[in-house]
Amino acid sequence: MKAGQKILIVDDVSANLVALEKVLSGLDVDIIKAANGNEALKAIINHDFALGILDVQMPEMDGYELADLIRGDEKNQNLPIIFLSAVHSDEFHIFKGYESGAVDFVTKPYDPFILLSKVKIFLRLDEQKKVLQENIEIEKSKNYLENILSSLEEGIIVTDLGFNITTVNKKILMLRGTDITEQAGKNPDEFFTVGLKEKWEEYLLSIENNNVKTSEFIFKTECELKRPEKDNMPVLLTVSGLNNRSGELLGTVWSVTDITERKKAELDLLASRERFSRAVMFAPFPIMIHNENSEIKLINEEWTNLSGYTNEDLPDLHSWLRQAYGRDEDFVLEDIKRIYRQEGKLDEGEYQIKTKNGELRTWYFSSTPLGPDENGVNTAISMALDITGLKEIEKELKLAKARAEEISRLKSNFLANMSHELRTPLMGILGYTEVLMSELESDEYVKMLKKIMFSGQRLSDTINSILDLTKVETDRITAEIKLADINFTVNPVIESFRGAMAEKRLDFQIVKHPGTLCSMTDENLLGQIIKHLLHNAAKYTHKGYVRLTTGREVIDDKKFVTISVADSGIGIPGDKIDLIWEEFRQVSEGISRNFEGCGLGLTIVKKLTNILGGTVTVESETGKGSVFTVLLPASDSAENGNAGDLTGINKEVVNSAEKNGLRKILYTEDDEINQEVINLFLRGKYEITVVKNSDETMSSLDKQNYDLLLVDINLGEGLSGVDLIKEIRKNKELQNIPAIAVTAYAAPGDKEAIIEAGFNAYIPKPFDRKTLLGNIRDLLDNRE
Ligand code: ADP
To answer: Where does the pLDDT of residue 653 fall: very low under 50, low under 70, confident under 90, or very high at 90 and above?
Structure first.
């Protein structure tokens, strides 16, 4: 009989129980005894029985009732029962016994041998039933397992203890691209790039030697799954021992996971890390990756090359900071700590580092946090540019700029002083010449005087040009913009050139647009522009014509008025056409220079045109002539031709008759030549008193009334002209007396300062008689 089988025997007579136990004692079974129904039921709960042998006649609960109750329990509904009965061995009772589930009925006194034989049969039956049930269970769980296996994402291989494949799931077949037939009975090592059989055998040996039935066999690795006619597949392989419920080792289970995607991603990551590292390593500027733990994760060649520190010199960030920044180490460290904490923000700044050979260099750093690394430590990348060279250039540039500004200031001072020194004697030269010309009768002398006059005038023009340029360059010119009709604006300039053109026998043509040409402009500045252009046209044309044309033009929907000066002169070679606008540049320069002039006219023209918001261009052909065209923005009135607002703009200067009662003028001048010249200019027209300095002026004013004051500014001794007029204006009676400053101070800003001091007009030296008389007349007329 199979060990572990149990038989329940129930009898209220203990002698019967002992007798029965004895009969059964030859069997290899456990016998559980019960003296009544209740005891029997308890035993039923605690044990699994292969057979029950019940006495029928028992007090309280007889055998049938007990059998009923036993069979009522699901676990025991098929438990074979043998009834033992002495009294009721009639048919009725036998029947009742069977009805209660008895499988046999033995009447006392029984033949022990027969009973024993029956019991044996039942035990065998029980055994067979158990085997059957086990088989059913196994079958069931086999199906269950197969279902589970086939639904798994992993490939599964099961082997027996001998390492032969017993089961595989669908997934592993799919991964290998094979069918089931190929796998059975094989050693799974054949499928992988690692071999485990040896390990398995060692394991088996070790558990055998240690006499342990169960222990863990777990083996986990990444390897490759071999696939017929295909590339190997990277897999994660987990092999573990397979135990049944009671812990008995049955074989191994292999779980195979496809990690192709993960491997690919890892490779991609590796490749991109590699690319990044290369880019950093060979970048043409210093780069370092460092972290909060002061570790230098990466430092590139340029960093070590430029700083001179080797990788050995820089085992960590602190060693860099200590060597490169010395005493500033902590200060820089604070800046770096801030970078780790910033989120994605850039930190930039200039730092001075000390190289290994002690040189100080300026590095411009850009640092960005990279976030925590795989260990959660905050990391940052710092890139640097060595800007030492740039800094030096910057320093030099600043110095050069300061020097240039100083030179420019010196130039302006020089020009202002020179103009004063040149204008004062020029006044004498031109003044006396003018006086002499009207006094002398000899044609020969007059011719000579004209030449003196011409040369002096030229010198005066040059000085004026230089001053004009200084004014433009120092932004001292402010345009007084008013609505003007260009057709009128050009008139005074045209008139002033008629004489010169006639003298050179040039055909001076004026072609004016028939309508009005309105522009918001400064007539004075525009007059200067045209004067320079006509001057050049006359100068560079030996025969033929000079033509001034006014007109309109529309360019890109914008309206312009145009003034062009064309000539049939020498023209300008194409390669020189750009340089003529630069200051002091001429087409013919150096010792081969053919024309007088200082090369400033066109520079001034260009700058003044810019101030007026216009443009100036030139078209020229050598030997044929040139056309200079000025474009100024037209104002609306230009379109409708309405010049109504312009009455008065171009009002001709009305010649006022000079007074015959001879007005009195007090002239303060320390230069004797100028005193005489002005005396001569005003002779017969005004009664003139000349004084030398401020004191004499004040005492003259005390003694007598004057109609007008003429005051030189640089008076040598006593108050200057500027302070003198301030003093004079303090006197109530003299507050409105017209006063004209005559001065060689014609530098930018002088005029404004002089007028502000209290003068009504300002005449720069040298000036001619007409200018002086015109100014005096204007002031005296205004007072009437
Ligand atoms: P300047 O006439 O005093 O030399 P500008 O600045 O007025 O200086 O002119 C610069 C140069 O342009 C002149 O030296 C001359 O060579 C050239 N130029 C100017 N106007 C004309 C013109 N109408 N015809 C030919 N050349 C001219």
So the answer is: very low
**pLDDT, tens digit, 9 for 90 and up, residues 363-381:** 999 999 988 888 899 999 9
Ligand 1, atom 12: closest residue by C-alpha: 580
Distances in whole angstroms, Cα of residue 132 to Cα of each of 126, 127, 128, 129, 245: 10, 9, 6, 5, 19
For the chain, give percent helix, strand, coil, nearest 5. Answer: 45, 25, 30
Q: Which residues, 6 or more positions from 185, have their beta carbon under 8 angstroms from its beta carbon?
A: 164, 165
3-state secondary structure of 199: helix
**Ligand 1 centroid vs 603 CA: distance in angstroms?**
10
Which tokens hold the place of 264? 């690919």
Task: State the pLDDT confidence band at 640, using cuts at 50, 70 and 90.
Answer: very low
Q: Record the tokens describing residue 363, joined without a space.
A: 């590095």
Q: Does the pTM exceed 0.85?
A: no
Specify the 3-state DSSP secondary structure of 748.
coil
- Write out pLDDT tens, residues 273-293: 889 888 888 889 999 999 999
- DSSP for 105-124 reads EEESSP-HHHHHHHHHHHHH
d(CA 270, CA 749): 73
- pLDDT of 222 strictly over 90: yes
Q: In sequence order, what are the beta bridge partners of 224?
A: 234
Residue 51 CA to residue 48 CA, distance in Å, equals 9
The residue whose CB lies within 8 Å of the most ligand 1 atoms, and thus the one to mutate among 472, 501, 529, 536, is: 536
Q: What's the CA gap between 667 and 124, in Å, rounded?
A: 161
Task: Give the whole-angstrom CA distance, residue 485 versus residue 468.
Answer: 24
Q: Is 617 helix (H, G, I), strand (E, B) or coil?
A: strand
CB 276 within 8 A of CB 268: no
Residue whose CB lies within 8 A of the most ligand 1 atoms, among 531, 580, 581, for a mutation test: 580
Core vs surface per residue 667-691: b (16+ CB within 10 A) or e: bbbebeebbbbbbbbbeebbebbbb
**650 phi/psi in degrees, rounded to 5:** -110, 30
Helices and strands in the chain, H and E counts: 23, 27
* Ligand 1 interacting residues, C-beta cut-off 6 A: 536-537, 540, 567, 569-572, 580, 586-587, 597-603, 626
Nearest to 691 by CA among 664, 731, 661: 664
Q: Which pLDDT tens digit goes with each residue over 567-620? A: 999 999 999 898 888 877 777 665 556 676 777 889 889 999 999 999 999 999
Quick one: tokens of 474? 């120092």
Average pLDDT over residues 390-404: 92
Q: What are phi and psi of 294, to 5 degrees?
A: 70, 20
DSSP 240-260: EEEE-TT--EEEEEEEEEE-H
In this structure, what are the phi and psi dihedrals at residue 299, rounded to the nearest 5 degrees? -140, 130
